[in-house]
Amino acid sequence: MPLSYPRPHRPNPARRLAAAVTTALLAAGVLVGCSGDDGPQRTVDAFLAGWRSGDLQAVGLIDPLGSKLPSADVAREIKDLSGELASTPPKLTRRGEPKITKDIATTTVQVEWTLPGQTRWAYDREVRLAHGDDDQWQVIWEPKVVHEQLTKGDRLALRRDPGARAAVLDNAGKPLVTPRPVVRVGVQPNGVTDLKKLVKDLDAAFKAIRPALVPGVDLADLPDRVAKAEPGAFVEVVSLREEAYRQIKPRIYDLPGTKFISDKIDLAPTREFARALLGTVDQAQADDLAAHPDRYVVGDLVGHGGLQGRYDERLRGGPGLTVVVERPAEGGKLEPTGAELFRREPQPGQALKTTLDVAVQNSADGALRAEPRRSALVAIRISDGAVLAAANGPGPAGENLAFDAQVPPGSTFKMVSTLGLLDRGAVTLDGPVDCKKTFTVDGRSFKNSDNFELGSVPFRTDFAKSCNTAFAALAPKLGGDGLAAAGRSLGLEGQWDLGTDAFTGKVSTGGSLAEQAAASFGQGTTLVSPLAMAGATAAVARGRFEQPKLLIDPAPAKPAPAGEQLKPESVKALRTMMREVVTAGTGSALKDVPGEVYGKTGTAEYDDNPAHTHAWFVGWRGDVAFAVFVEKGGASTASAVPIAERFLRALPTP
């Protein structure tokens, strides 16, 4: 019998039950139609709510032929059809009022899925309803309600295409990391004759590589992986740069069971090349997947540490997403049908442009290569403050002593205290200052390295020979905050924005007379990093502080403002003294290095044992200022100065 709409309200028990369901849906925040209790919109809204919740008990369901369907079966089929999207049900919105023709109503529903990366996929579907003999509207269920291209047994699946990872660029705009040849070293289980011996031999060979692999190759799980692998499988152990592989090829090539595959991997110019500053790019690790399940999947490349980690999202870009249809094949395995329902193209990453100079960085890395202790070297272009190199010697992977170390500067800080003394007119180049064997302040005795004394000599000689007692005696002329003021004029303690973390120093201020005496030659509570000292040295060479720069694009938002011009007469005298350190002082090992080298040595006690010292050298030649630090390096002339010499000899002569 034809249906007229709307019909007059006729209360009955079934309708009271439906009203209760509607009330519950409203309480749950579901949009429910309100134009007539008998209208199909109420059933549509209940169906949409049940679709999202997985509970369709409040809805009558029939197939296209009119046969009743169990609500649990339909709920299960919706979940199955949703496939990989089932864990994030779509937002469902009824568009307008249903259109009724006789006993059939049709309504439009917007289906809006939120895909990984907050990608929106929305489309409209039609939901049909039939008016039953029991005076209730029933949803006509079929798979195409979910999507028009779905049929029974289909599944929605996601295909993810990573975007092209962008490069970190040098100061010439060329990628620092490019495809470079490697050899993948592995084991084939059915070729192994003695697994225990193989592991021992591989371990010894890997440990013989120089410079040492950081981190080392962990073979602890190799026996278990070999035992579980197929007999003819390639069980990868490590990928080695060609130059590292060649070192140990004679030791491992003929070991029973070893296999080798030549490949190319995106790598920096050398294994050491600014490794702590740049970071690494590796396949997503378990903690990456756990922390960002919506961002990474197994197999993704992820930046770890350094610039690669800090700017991972920028560099990696956005993955492409494709929603496809899968269907069970013979044996029940799901296979793609070839249908693509939605596609978002991958977005390539954006490059980082740095100020790093490949030649200078290679020189810095090479200078530290023979140093077994933790060490660092930072080089800065004086003319514009560009960081040309940030090198780190042996140490934990990712440790950036060059930027992060917080250590006493020792006698390199005489550069800062001398500037303060010159600014105050407390000393002159040739004015006599006594260099005693010892000098006592408030019961604390200060001495010079190897207990030397010079007597009354020109101040320039005290500086060149690095006389601690002379500076301890001059400390009162700086006043309580004079040293800190001089340090700040060179950028120390500043709020620098390089686009990565860096320690800019903490200069002793105030304190007892003994503390002021110690601070005058870089002891006491003063702490610096190699970057901070390289920046201060560049400021002396330049005549004005300018914050070191590392990133060109994206440029840091809040770099520190440039400092005021330093007093020309003070800077001129200080430069003269720093040249004499090399020509006639503690840095004389550098006097035959090509070009005019300026500098200051430093030996810094780091605990209560005077024999425990860090070694420093800061200086410049031409347009390159630099700082060398060697942890527990002893005398600077035995460790830091030779590193500085290797660095300068490797650089082109200005």
TrEMBL record:
| Name by which UniProt lists this protein | Penicillin-binding protein
Per the record, the coiled-coil ranges are none
Where in the cell?
Answer: Membrane
Penicillin-binding protein transpeptidase domain: which residues? 377-648
Q: Name one Pfam family in it.
A: Transpeptidase
Domain NTF2-like N-terminal transpeptidase: from-to ranges:
40-154
Stretches assigned to the Penicillin-binding protein dimerisation domain? 161-331
- Name the major location: membrane
Question: Is Protease among this UniProt entry's keywords?
Answer: no
